[in-house]
Amino acid sequence: MKKILLTIIVIILLTSSGCINTIKKKSGDKIDPDSPKPSYFNFPDVLIPLELTKDREGSVIYMNSNTKAGVLNLTGKATFGYLIDFFKENMDKDNWHLVSENETSTRMILMFRKKCRWSIIDIDGDSSTARVSIWVTPSSTSAKPIGLLK
User: Fold this and answer.
1) What are phi and psi of 98, to 5 degrees?
2) Secondary structure (DSSP) of 98-118
3) Distance of alpha carbon 2 from alpha carbon 90, whole angstroms
4) Backbone dihedral angles phi then psi of residue 26, each to the nearest 5 degrees
5) Has residue 81 been placed in a domain?
6) Which residues have CB under 8 Å from 23's CB, separation 6+?
7) The whole model's pTM is what?
8) Which range of residues forms the domain containing residue 114?
9) Any idea what the CATH number is for the domain that residue 126 is in?
10) Is 39 helix (H, G, I), strand (E, B) or coil?
């Protein structure tokens, strides 16, 4: 039921897109070049922990000259708490703003917003292998916030 709800939200946001890509990259952080480090997969402003790998069959990415959108499914060996902290910290560093979080004992759904984009991160910690779904979609610049988004 939750996946259906997430799918509906993403479809609504995709159909109301009207904003061009306004992604800003940060630079200047010193990192040891020999150490393993997180990386950006399909979305240049959503950092992925190095413990996760892309599920190519379950991921769908839409690209055009103005934007990238879709769902990126990942699996790997990482703890539930680590993944929650990782995404909260790094999404903030990439100028995403946390809008809401919904948590159960084994699942966390984080919703982030930028000026022209939305991201929903669904972290499933119900097994020994972590499963993460990252939805990214453009938003309409003319849409007015409603409900909790005011």
Assistant:
1) -70, 120
2) EEEEEE-SSEEEEEEE-SSEE
3) 25
4) -95, 145
5) yes
6) 44, 45
7) 0.72
8) 2-16+45-139
9) 3.30.310
10) strand
Q: What is the pLDDT of residues 30-77, one digit of tens each?
A: 545 555 688 888 899 999 999 999 998 889 999 888 888 999 999 999
pLDDT above 60: residue 28? no
Residue 12 lies in a domain: yes
Assess if residue 22 is contained within a domain: no
Tokens representing 145 are 């916030």
pLDDT digits (tens, 9 = 90+) for 76-107: 999 999 999 999 999 999 999 999 999 998 89
Say which residue the tokens 């119900």 belong to: 126
Residue 45: CB partners within 8 Å, gap ≥ 6? 23, 24, 25, 94, 95, 96, 114
* Total domains present in the chain: 1
Q: Which ranges in 44-132 belong to alpha helices (H)?
A: 80-93
User: What is the helix, strand, coil percentage profile of the chain, to 5?
Assistant: 20, 35, 45
Q: What is the largest CA-CA distance in the chain?
A: 47
144 is a domain residue: no
